[in-house]
Amino acid sequence: MLTEIATAESLRPHTHAAFPASRKAPETLLSVGVPMSFPRNGEIFAEGETAGYVYKVVSGVVRVSKLLPDGRRQISAFHLPGDMFGFEIGDIHHCSAEAVVPTKVVAFKWQGLLGAGASTSLVRELLTRTMIGLRHTEDHLLLLGRKNALERLAAFLLEMAARSGSAEMLDLAMPRHDIADYLGLTLETVSRMFAELKEMGQIKLESARRVRLLNMDKLRAIAA
Amino acid sequence: MLTEIATAESLRPHTHAAFPASRKAPETLLSVGVPMSFPRNGEIFAEGETAGYVYKVVSGVVRVSKLLPDGRRQISAFHLPGDMFGFEIGDIHHCSAEAVVPTKVVAFKWQGLLGAGASTSLVRELLTRTMIGLRHTEDHLLLLGRKNALERLAAFLLEMAARSGSAEMLDLAMPRHDIADYLGLTLETVSRMFAELKEMGQIKLESARRVRLLNMDKLRAIAA
DNA sequence: CGTGGTTTTGAGCCCCTTCAACCACCGTGG
DNA sequence: CCACGGTGGTTGAAGGGGCTCAAAACCACG
Protein backbone atom coordinates (compact mmCIF):
# COMPACT_ATOMS: atom_id res chain seq x y z
CA MET A 1 0.00 0.00 0.00
CA LEU A 2 1.27 3.40 -0.99
CA THR A 3 4.27 1.76 -2.55
CA GLU A 4 5.72 4.86 -4.11
CA ILE A 5 5.80 6.70 -0.83
CA ALA A 6 6.98 3.65 1.04
CA THR A 7 9.85 3.33 -1.39
CA ALA A 8 10.90 6.90 -0.91
CA GLU A 9 10.73 6.36 2.80
CA SER A 10 12.78 3.18 2.87
CA LEU A 11 15.46 4.76 0.70
CA ARG A 12 16.28 7.21 3.40
CA PRO A 13 17.77 6.72 6.84
CA HIS A 14 15.99 8.35 9.74
CA THR A 15 17.86 11.45 10.57
CA HIS A 16 16.78 14.06 13.00
CA ALA A 17 15.86 17.03 10.87
CA ALA A 18 14.54 19.98 12.80
CA PHE A 19 12.37 21.25 9.97
CA PRO A 20 11.50 19.92 6.51
CA ALA A 21 12.79 23.01 4.75
CA SER A 22 16.18 22.53 6.32
CA ARG A 23 16.91 19.38 4.35
CA LYS A 24 17.47 18.92 0.66
CA ALA A 25 15.34 16.34 -1.07
CA PRO A 26 17.23 13.58 -2.91
CA GLU A 27 16.40 12.75 -6.52
CA THR A 28 14.15 9.72 -6.30
CA LEU A 29 10.74 8.83 -7.66
CA LEU A 30 8.92 10.73 -5.00
CA SER A 31 11.88 12.20 -3.35
CA VAL A 32 10.15 14.69 -1.13
CA GLY A 33 10.10 12.51 1.99
CA VAL A 34 11.96 14.02 4.93
CA PRO A 35 12.49 12.06 8.17
CA MET A 36 11.87 14.02 11.35
CA SER A 37 11.73 13.14 15.00
CA PHE A 38 9.99 14.75 17.93
CA PRO A 39 10.27 14.44 21.70
CA ARG A 40 7.35 13.69 23.98
CA ASN A 41 4.72 16.45 23.56
CA GLY A 42 6.73 17.92 20.70
CA GLU A 43 4.68 20.03 18.32
CA ILE A 44 4.58 18.70 14.75
CA PHE A 45 2.37 21.49 13.47
CA ALA A 46 -0.12 23.90 15.02
CA GLU A 47 -3.60 25.08 14.17
CA GLY A 48 -3.38 28.12 11.91
CA GLU A 49 0.11 27.35 10.66
CA THR A 50 0.92 27.19 6.96
CA ALA A 51 0.40 23.66 5.71
CA GLY A 52 2.21 22.10 2.75
CA TYR A 53 3.29 18.69 4.02
CA VAL A 54 1.59 15.43 4.82
CA TYR A 55 3.15 13.11 7.37
CA LYS A 56 3.53 9.39 7.83
CA VAL A 57 4.21 7.93 11.26
CA VAL A 58 7.29 5.72 11.41
CA SER A 59 7.36 5.08 15.15
CA GLY A 60 5.66 6.51 18.18
CA VAL A 61 2.16 7.99 18.49
CA VAL A 62 0.71 11.28 17.28
CA ARG A 63 -2.39 13.09 18.51
CA VAL A 64 -4.33 15.47 16.26
CA SER A 65 -6.50 17.99 18.06
CA LYS A 66 -8.50 21.19 17.89
CA LEU A 67 -8.84 23.87 20.54
CA LEU A 68 -11.59 26.27 21.54
CA PRO A 69 -10.57 29.82 22.51
CA ASP A 70 -11.07 29.02 26.21
CA GLY A 71 -8.80 25.98 26.09
CA ARG A 72 -11.26 23.15 25.74
CA ARG A 73 -9.64 20.52 23.55
CA GLN A 74 -10.94 17.76 21.31
CA ILE A 75 -8.56 15.10 20.01
CA SER A 76 -9.88 13.82 16.69
CA ALA A 77 -7.47 10.92 16.28
CA PHE A 78 -4.39 9.09 17.51
CA HIS A 79 -2.04 8.04 14.74
CA LEU A 80 0.14 4.93 14.98
CA PRO A 81 3.04 3.79 12.77
CA GLY A 82 1.89 3.49 9.16
CA ASP A 83 -0.84 6.12 9.50
CA MET A 84 -0.74 9.34 7.54
CA PHE A 85 -2.06 12.70 8.72
CA GLY A 86 -1.88 16.41 7.98
CA PHE A 87 -4.16 16.45 4.91
CA GLU A 88 -5.47 19.97 4.35
CA ILE A 89 -7.51 21.62 1.62
CA GLY A 90 -6.16 25.13 1.76
CA ASP A 91 -2.66 26.03 2.86
CA ILE A 92 -3.57 26.43 6.51
CA HIS A 93 -3.65 23.72 9.17
CA HIS A 94 -6.92 23.75 11.04
CA CYS A 95 -5.81 21.06 13.47
CA SER A 96 -2.63 20.77 15.47
CA ALA A 97 -0.51 17.65 15.80
CA GLU A 98 1.82 16.63 18.63
CA ALA A 99 3.90 13.63 19.54
CA VAL A 100 2.42 11.66 22.45
CA VAL A 101 5.73 9.86 22.99
CA PRO A 102 9.10 10.28 21.26
CA THR A 103 8.06 9.91 17.65
CA LYS A 104 9.57 9.62 14.17
CA VAL A 105 7.64 10.70 11.08
CA VAL A 106 8.39 11.31 7.41
CA ALA A 107 7.11 14.53 5.85
CA PHE A 108 6.07 14.65 2.19
CA LYS A 109 5.57 17.83 0.24
CA TRP A 110 1.92 18.06 -0.76
CA GLN A 111 2.86 19.80 -4.03
CA GLY A 112 5.21 16.96 -4.84
CA LEU A 113 2.50 14.36 -4.36
CA LEU A 114 -0.21 16.14 -6.33
CA GLY A 115 1.91 18.06 -8.84
CA ALA A 116 1.46 17.96 -12.59
CA GLY A 117 3.03 14.54 -13.05
CA ALA A 118 1.24 12.85 -10.20
CA SER A 119 0.22 9.32 -11.05
CA THR A 120 -3.44 8.43 -10.84
CA SER A 121 -2.65 5.51 -8.57
CA LEU A 122 -0.95 7.82 -6.08
CA VAL A 123 -3.83 10.29 -6.02
CA ARG A 124 -6.17 7.35 -5.60
CA GLU A 125 -4.09 6.12 -2.70
CA LEU A 126 -4.40 9.51 -1.03
CA LEU A 127 -8.14 9.40 -1.70
CA THR A 128 -8.40 6.03 0.00
CA ARG A 129 -6.47 7.23 3.03
CA THR A 130 -8.62 10.33 3.30
CA MET A 131 -11.74 8.19 3.11
CA ILE A 132 -10.41 5.93 5.86
CA GLY A 133 -9.96 9.02 7.99
CA LEU A 134 -13.47 10.16 7.16
CA ARG A 135 -14.96 6.82 8.13
CA HIS A 136 -13.10 6.80 11.43
CA THR A 137 -14.21 10.34 12.19
CA GLU A 138 -17.85 9.54 11.41
CA ASP A 139 -17.70 6.56 13.76
CA HIS A 140 -16.27 8.86 16.38
CA LEU A 141 -19.16 11.30 15.88
CA LEU A 142 -21.54 8.55 16.94
CA LEU A 143 -19.43 7.88 20.02
CA LEU A 144 -19.28 11.54 21.05
CA GLY A 145 -22.86 12.33 20.24
CA ARG A 146 -24.66 9.29 21.60
CA LYS A 147 -22.60 7.00 23.83
CA ASN A 148 -22.21 7.21 27.59
CA ALA A 149 -18.91 7.25 29.45
CA LEU A 150 -18.62 3.49 29.96
CA GLU A 151 -19.46 2.74 26.33
CA ARG A 152 -16.90 5.30 25.19
CA LEU A 153 -14.07 3.80 27.21
CA ALA A 154 -14.92 0.25 26.14
CA ALA A 155 -14.93 1.37 22.50
CA PHE A 156 -11.61 3.15 22.99
CA LEU A 157 -9.93 0.08 24.48
CA LEU A 158 -11.22 -2.11 21.67
CA GLU A 159 -10.07 0.38 19.04
CA MET A 160 -6.59 0.53 20.53
CA ALA A 161 -6.43 -3.25 20.86
CA ALA A 162 -7.49 -3.71 17.25
CA ARG A 163 -4.86 -1.28 16.01
CA SER A 164 -1.99 -2.68 18.03
CA GLY A 165 -2.16 -6.28 16.97
CA SER A 166 -5.42 -7.07 18.66
CA ALA A 167 -3.61 -8.56 21.60
CA GLU A 168 -5.40 -8.85 24.90
CA MET A 169 -2.53 -7.05 26.57
CA LEU A 170 -2.67 -3.39 25.74
CA ASP A 171 -0.05 -0.72 26.32
CA LEU A 172 -1.51 2.76 26.19
CA ALA A 173 0.93 5.44 25.11
CA MET A 174 -1.21 8.37 26.23
CA PRO A 175 -2.14 9.74 29.68
CA ARG A 176 -5.69 9.88 31.05
CA HIS A 177 -6.02 13.50 30.03
CA ASP A 178 -5.49 12.65 26.35
CA ILE A 179 -7.93 9.77 26.53
CA ALA A 180 -10.46 12.13 28.08
CA ASP A 181 -10.00 14.73 25.34
CA TYR A 182 -10.39 12.01 22.74
CA LEU A 183 -13.58 10.65 24.31
CA GLY A 184 -15.16 14.00 25.18
CA LEU A 185 -14.95 13.35 28.94
CA THR A 186 -12.93 14.58 31.92
CA LEU A 187 -9.90 12.66 33.09
CA GLU A 188 -11.66 11.90 36.37
CA THR A 189 -14.54 10.25 34.56
CA VAL A 190 -12.10 8.22 32.44
CA SER A 191 -10.40 7.04 35.61
CA ARG A 192 -13.75 6.10 37.16
CA MET A 193 -14.76 4.14 34.06
CA PHE A 194 -11.47 2.23 34.19
CA ALA A 195 -12.34 1.37 37.76
CA GLU A 196 -15.84 0.34 36.78
CA LEU A 197 -14.67 -1.94 33.98
CA LYS A 198 -12.29 -3.46 36.50
CA GLU A 199 -15.12 -3.95 39.01
CA MET A 200 -17.13 -5.63 36.26
CA GLY A 201 -14.27 -8.03 35.65
CA GLN A 202 -13.80 -6.91 32.05
CA ILE A 203 -10.26 -5.58 32.38
CA LYS A 204 -7.23 -5.93 34.62
CA LEU A 205 -4.97 -2.95 35.27
CA GLU A 206 -1.37 -4.16 35.45
CA SER A 207 -0.51 -0.50 35.77
CA ALA A 208 -2.27 2.70 34.76
CA ARG A 209 -1.03 2.31 31.18
CA ARG A 210 -1.02 -1.49 30.90
CA VAL A 211 -4.47 -2.98 30.50
CA ARG A 212 -5.42 -6.61 30.04
CA LEU A 213 -8.69 -7.09 28.18
CA LEU A 214 -10.27 -10.11 29.82
CA ASN A 215 -13.34 -10.48 27.62
CA MET A 216 -13.31 -8.78 24.26
CA ASP A 217 -16.79 -9.98 23.28
CA LYS A 218 -18.32 -8.64 26.46
CA LEU A 219 -16.45 -5.39 25.91
CA ARG A 220 -17.88 -5.22 22.42
CA ALA A 221 -21.34 -5.62 23.87
CA ILE A 222 -20.69 -2.83 26.34
CA ALA A 223 -19.31 -0.53 23.64
CA ALA A 224 -22.73 -0.76 21.91
CA MET B 1 -26.40 0.14 -16.34
CA LEU B 2 -28.72 3.06 -16.43
CA THR B 3 -31.62 0.79 -15.70
CA GLU B 4 -29.84 -1.01 -12.91
CA ILE B 5 -30.38 1.76 -10.43
CA ALA B 6 -33.87 2.53 -11.49
CA THR B 7 -34.84 -1.10 -11.24
CA ALA B 8 -33.20 -1.61 -7.89
CA GLU B 9 -34.73 1.57 -6.57
CA SER B 10 -38.22 0.89 -7.82
CA LEU B 11 -38.20 -2.35 -5.88
CA ARG B 12 -38.27 -0.29 -2.72
CA PRO B 13 -41.70 0.87 -1.62
CA HIS B 14 -40.88 4.50 -0.87
CA THR B 15 -38.40 5.50 -3.56
CA HIS B 16 -39.18 6.63 -7.06
CA ALA B 17 -37.07 7.29 -10.11
CA ALA B 18 -37.49 10.89 -11.11
CA PHE B 19 -37.13 10.45 -14.82
CA PRO B 20 -37.71 7.59 -17.24
CA ALA B 21 -34.87 5.13 -16.89
CA SER B 22 -34.33 5.27 -20.63
CA ARG B 23 -33.31 8.90 -20.56
CA LYS B 24 -29.57 9.28 -21.11
CA ALA B 25 -27.43 11.68 -19.17
CA PRO B 26 -25.40 14.14 -21.25
CA GLU B 27 -21.99 12.94 -22.44
CA THR B 28 -19.69 14.58 -19.93
CA LEU B 29 -17.01 13.30 -17.64
CA LEU B 30 -19.75 12.32 -15.27
CA SER B 31 -21.91 10.80 -17.94
CA VAL B 32 -22.99 7.85 -15.82
CA GLY B 33 -25.28 9.97 -13.67
CA VAL B 34 -28.82 8.77 -13.08
CA PRO B 35 -31.43 11.24 -11.78
CA MET B 36 -33.57 10.00 -8.91
CA SER B 37 -36.08 11.60 -6.61
CA PHE B 38 -37.28 10.76 -3.14
CA PRO B 39 -40.24 11.79 -1.02
CA ARG B 40 -39.94 13.23 2.48
CA ASN B 41 -38.15 10.68 4.70
CA GLY B 42 -37.45 8.53 1.66
CA GLU B 43 -34.51 6.15 2.08
CA ILE B 44 -31.68 6.78 -0.39
CA PHE B 45 -29.52 4.01 1.02
CA ALA B 46 -29.25 2.18 4.33
CA GLU B 47 -26.41 1.19 6.62
CA GLY B 48 -25.14 -2.24 5.63
CA GLU B 49 -26.45 -2.09 2.08
CA THR B 50 -24.20 -2.70 -0.90
CA ALA B 51 -22.62 0.56 -2.01
CA GLY B 52 -21.42 1.32 -5.54
CA TYR B 53 -22.80 4.78 -6.22
CA VAL B 54 -22.03 8.29 -5.08
CA TYR B 55 -24.75 10.90 -5.09
CA LYS B 56 -25.00 14.59 -5.82
CA VAL B 57 -27.88 16.63 -4.44
CA VAL B 58 -29.84 18.53 -7.09
CA SER B 59 -32.61 19.91 -4.89
CA GLY B 60 -33.88 19.27 -1.38
CA VAL B 61 -31.94 18.20 1.70
CA VAL B 62 -30.36 14.87 2.67
CA ARG B 63 -29.40 13.62 6.12
CA VAL B 64 -26.65 11.03 6.60
CA SER B 65 -26.80 9.11 9.87
CA LYS B 66 -25.62 6.13 11.87
CA LEU B 67 -27.63 4.06 14.33
CA LEU B 68 -26.79 2.17 17.51
CA PRO B 69 -28.51 -1.20 18.04
CA ASP B 70 -30.87 0.36 20.61
CA GLY B 71 -31.99 3.08 18.24
CA ARG B 72 -29.85 6.02 19.29
CA ARG B 73 -29.05 7.99 16.17
CA GLN B 74 -26.28 10.37 15.17
CA ILE B 75 -26.65 12.51 12.06
CA SER B 76 -23.18 13.23 10.69
CA ALA B 77 -24.20 15.77 8.06
CA PHE B 78 -26.98 17.51 6.19
CA HIS B 79 -26.36 17.79 2.46
CA LEU B 80 -27.71 20.68 0.38
CA PRO B 81 -27.87 21.10 -3.42
CA GLY B 82 -24.39 20.79 -4.93
CA ASP B 83 -23.08 18.53 -2.15
CA MET B 84 -21.96 14.98 -2.83
CA PHE B 85 -22.30 12.06 -0.44
CA GLY B 86 -22.18 8.28 -0.30
CA PHE B 87 -18.40 7.84 -0.55
CA GLU B 88 -17.41 4.42 0.76
CA ILE B 89 -14.17 2.46 0.89
CA GLY B 90 -15.48 -1.06 0.65
CA ASP B 91 -18.68 -2.04 -1.07
CA ILE B 92 -20.85 -1.62 2.01
CA HIS B 93 -22.54 1.54 3.21
CA HIS B 94 -21.77 2.17 6.86
CA CYS B 95 -24.09 5.16 7.03
CA SER B 96 -27.65 5.54 5.86
CA ALA B 97 -29.01 8.48 3.87
CA GLU B 98 -32.57 9.80 3.74
CA ALA B 99 -34.36 12.73 2.18
CA VAL B 100 -35.38 15.34 4.76
CA VAL B 101 -37.81 16.93 2.28
CA PRO B 102 -38.78 15.87 -1.26
CA THR B 103 -35.37 15.63 -2.87
CA LYS B 104 -33.75 15.09 -6.26
CA VAL B 105 -30.27 13.61 -6.56
CA VAL B 106 -28.08 12.24 -9.32
CA ALA B 107 -26.37 8.88 -8.74
CA PHE B 108 -22.94 8.13 -10.24
CA LYS B 109 -21.45 4.69 -10.48
CA TRP B 110 -18.30 4.60 -8.36
CA GLN B 111 -16.64 2.16 -10.80
CA GLY B 112 -17.32 4.55 -13.63
CA LEU B 113 -15.64 7.40 -11.82
CA LEU B 114 -12.59 5.49 -10.68
CA GLY B 115 -12.26 2.96 -13.50
CA ALA B 116 -9.10 2.30 -15.45
CA GLY B 117 -9.41 5.38 -17.62
CA ALA B 118 -10.30 7.78 -14.84
CA SER B 119 -8.72 11.17 -15.33
CA THR B 120 -6.42 12.48 -12.65
CA SER B 121 -8.42 15.68 -12.41
CA LEU B 122 -11.57 13.73 -11.64
CA VAL B 123 -9.91 11.65 -8.95
CA ARG B 124 -8.46 14.84 -7.55
CA GLU B 125 -11.93 16.37 -7.53
CA LEU B 126 -13.19 13.42 -5.49
CA LEU B 127 -10.22 13.78 -3.17
CA THR B 128 -11.01 17.44 -2.57
CA ARG B 129 -14.66 16.69 -1.85
CA THR B 130 -13.71 13.92 0.57
CA MET B 131 -11.30 16.25 2.33
CA ILE B 132 -14.02 18.87 2.64
CA GLY B 133 -16.19 16.24 4.25
CA LEU B 134 -13.35 15.27 6.58
CA ARG B 135 -12.81 18.86 7.67
CA HIS B 136 -16.50 19.35 8.37
CA THR B 137 -16.64 16.15 10.36
CA GLU B 138 -13.61 17.11 12.44
CA ASP B 139 -15.18 20.46 13.25
CA HIS B 140 -18.29 18.58 14.29
CA LEU B 141 -16.23 16.37 16.61
CA LEU B 142 -15.22 19.47 18.53
CA LEU B 143 -18.84 20.53 18.77
CA LEU B 144 -20.04 17.14 20.01
CA GLY B 145 -17.15 16.53 22.36
CA ARG B 146 -16.70 19.92 23.96
CA LYS B 147 -19.54 22.40 23.39
CA ASN B 148 -22.62 22.90 25.54
CA ALA B 149 -26.19 22.92 24.25
CA LEU B 150 -26.43 26.67 23.62
CA GLU B 151 -23.10 26.77 21.80
CA ARG B 152 -24.16 23.83 19.65
CA LEU B 153 -27.39 25.42 18.53
CA ALA B 154 -25.72 28.76 17.80
CA ALA B 155 -23.09 26.97 15.72
CA PHE B 156 -25.80 25.04 13.89
CA LEU B 157 -27.75 28.17 12.98
CA LEU B 158 -24.60 29.88 11.74
CA GLU B 159 -23.62 26.85 9.69
CA MET B 160 -27.03 26.67 8.07
CA ALA B 161 -27.06 30.40 7.41
CA ALA B 162 -23.62 30.26 5.81
CA ARG B 163 -24.63 27.42 3.55
CA SER B 164 -27.93 28.90 2.42
CA GLY B 165 -26.71 32.22 1.16
CA SER B 166 -25.75 33.62 4.53
CA ALA B 167 -29.02 35.49 4.75
CA GLU B 168 -30.27 36.57 8.15
CA MET B 169 -33.56 34.88 7.41
CA LEU B 170 -33.18 31.15 7.71
CA ASP B 171 -35.57 28.41 6.62
CA LEU B 172 -34.80 25.12 8.33
CA ALA B 173 -35.83 22.08 6.34
CA MET B 174 -35.52 19.64 9.22
CA PRO B 175 -37.60 19.03 12.37
CA ARG B 176 -36.29 19.49 15.91
CA HIS B 177 -35.65 15.79 16.23
CA ASP B 178 -33.17 15.85 13.32
CA ILE B 179 -31.44 18.94 14.69
CA ALA B 180 -31.15 17.14 18.03
CA ASP B 181 -29.63 14.04 16.44
CA TYR B 182 -27.19 16.22 14.55
CA LEU B 183 -26.15 18.13 17.67
CA GLY B 184 -26.04 15.18 20.05
CA LEU B 185 -28.95 16.50 22.16
CA THR B 186 -32.61 15.69 22.75
CA LEU B 187 -35.32 17.52 20.86
CA GLU B 188 -36.55 19.05 24.12
CA THR B 189 -33.16 20.59 24.80
CA VAL B 190 -32.99 21.94 21.25
CA SER B 191 -36.38 23.56 21.75
CA ARG B 192 -35.26 25.07 25.05
CA MET B 193 -32.09 26.47 23.49
CA PHE B 194 -34.17 28.08 20.72
CA ALA B 195 -36.21 29.69 23.48
CA GLU B 196 -33.08 30.82 25.29
CA LEU B 197 -31.54 32.41 22.18
CA LYS B 198 -34.87 34.17 21.70
CA GLU B 199 -34.83 35.38 25.33
CA MET B 200 -31.32 36.67 24.76
CA GLY B 201 -32.53 38.64 21.77
CA GLN B 202 -30.26 36.79 19.33
CA ILE B 203 -32.95 35.25 17.14
CA LYS B 204 -36.60 35.77 16.26
CA LEU B 205 -38.80 32.76 15.56
CA GLU B 206 -41.21 33.65 12.75
CA SER B 207 -42.34 30.05 13.03
CA ALA B 208 -40.69 26.88 14.32
CA ARG B 209 -38.82 26.44 11.05
CA ARG B 210 -38.28 30.10 10.12
CA VAL B 211 -35.57 31.82 12.13
CA ARG B 212 -34.30 35.37 11.84
CA LEU B 213 -30.72 35.78 13.02
CA LEU B 214 -30.63 39.21 14.66
CA ASN B 215 -26.93 39.41 15.48
CA MET B 216 -24.58 37.09 13.65
CA ASP B 217 -21.45 38.39 15.39
CA LYS B 218 -22.93 37.80 18.82
CA LEU B 219 -24.04 34.35 17.70
CA ARG B 220 -20.49 33.62 16.58
CA ALA B 221 -19.26 34.64 20.02
CA ILE B 222 -21.79 32.31 21.65
CA ALA B 223 -20.89 29.42 19.34
CA ALA B 224 -17.32 29.59 20.73
C1' DC C 1 -63.89 20.74 13.81
C1' DG C 2 -61.18 16.36 14.79
C1' DT C 3 -56.71 14.19 13.97
C1' DG C 4 -51.87 13.19 13.82
C1' DG C 5 -47.40 15.08 13.78
C1' DT C 6 -44.54 18.58 15.65
C1' DT C 7 -43.14 21.81 19.12
C1' DT C 8 -43.18 23.81 23.59
C1' DT C 9 -43.14 23.78 28.47
C1' DG C 10 -42.85 21.76 33.15
C1' DA C 11 -40.94 18.85 37.03
C1' DG C 12 -37.74 15.62 38.80
C1' DC C 13 -33.75 13.07 38.39
C1' DC C 14 -29.21 11.26 37.05
C1' DC C 15 -24.80 11.12 34.85
C1' DC C 16 -21.03 13.57 34.44
C1' DT C 17 -18.42 17.61 35.91
C1' DT C 18 -16.21 20.40 39.30
C1' DC C 19 -13.46 21.03 43.08
C1' DA C 20 -10.51 19.00 46.24
C1' DA C 21 -7.65 15.84 48.62
C1' DC C 22 -4.78 12.02 48.52
C1' DC C 23 -1.74 8.54 46.55
C1' DA C 24 1.77 6.19 43.57
C1' DC C 25 5.64 6.45 41.01
C1' DC C 26 10.29 8.26 39.77
C1' DG C 27 14.45 10.66 39.00
C1' DT C 28 17.30 13.97 41.72
C1' DG C 29 20.25 15.38 45.24
C1' DG C 30 21.55 15.84 50.09
C1' DC D 1 19.49 5.68 52.01
C1' DC D 2 15.74 8.59 52.33
C1' DA D 3 13.78 13.26 51.78
C1' DC D 4 12.05 15.81 48.13
C1' DG D 5 9.35 17.76 44.36
C1' DG D 6 6.78 16.94 40.19
C1' DT D 7 3.91 14.48 37.20
C1' DG D 8 0.20 11.55 36.66
C1' DG D 9 -3.62 8.86 38.63
C1' DT D 10 -7.29 7.73 41.91
C1' DT D 11 -11.04 8.71 44.88
C1' DG D 12 -14.64 11.49 47.34
C1' DA D 13 -18.48 14.96 47.82
C1' DA D 14 -21.47 18.20 45.91
C1' DG D 15 -23.61 20.58 42.20
C1' DG D 16 -25.51 21.33 37.63
C1' DG D 17 -26.67 20.69 32.70
C1' DG D 18 -29.09 17.98 29.98
C1' DC D 19 -32.21 13.85 30.00
C1' DT D 20 -36.60 11.51 31.02
C1' DC D 21 -41.25 11.48 31.57
C1' DA D 22 -45.46 13.90 30.99
C1' DA D 23 -48.82 17.02 29.28
C1' DA D 24 -50.33 20.82 26.83
C1' DA D 25 -50.20 23.83 22.72
C1' DC D 26 -49.71 24.47 18.00
C1' DC D 27 -50.47 23.62 13.13
C1' DA D 28 -51.41 21.71 8.63
C1' DC D 29 -54.80 18.97 6.51
C1' DG D 30 -58.76 15.88 6.11
Question: Could you outline the blueprint of secondary structure elements for this entry?
Answer:
The structure is a homodimer of 224-residue chains.
Chain A: H1 3-10, E1 34-38, E2 43-45, E3 53-59, E4 62-67, E5 73-79, E6 84-85, E7 96-99, E8 103-109, H2 110-114, H3 120-146, H4 149-163, E9 169-171, H5 176-183, H6 187-199, E10 203-205, E11 210-213, H7 216-223
Antiparallel strand pairs in A: 1-8, 2-7, 3-6, 3-8, 4-5, 4-7, 9-11, 10-11
The first copy, chain A, binds a DNA duplex (30 and 30 nucleotides) through residues 148-149, 175-177, 185-189, 191-192, 194-195, 207-208.
Quick overview:
Two copies of one chain form a homodimer. By secondary structure, chain A is of the alpha+beta class.
For this entry, give a set of tags.
homodimer; alpha+beta; four-stranded antiparallel β-sheet; 7 helices; 11 strands; 38% helix; disordered N terminus; DNA-binding
What can you tell me about this protein's structure?
The structure is a homodimer of 224-residue chains. Chain A is of the alpha+beta class and 224 residues long. Chain A contains seven helices and eleven strands. The first copy, chain A, has helices at residues 3-10, 110-114, 120-146, 149-163, 176-183, 187-199, 216-223, and strands spanning 34-38, 43-45, 53-59, 62-67, 73-79, 84-85, 96-99, 103-109, 169-171, 203-205, 210-213. A four-stranded antiparallel β-sheet of chain A has the order 1-8-3-6. In chain A, a hairpin with a 5-residue loop joins strand 4 (62-67) and strand 5 (73-79). Residues 1-29 of chain A have low confidence and may be disordered. Chains A and B meet through strand 5 and helix 3 of A and strand 5 and helix 3 of B. The structure holds a DNA duplex (30 and 30 nucleotides).
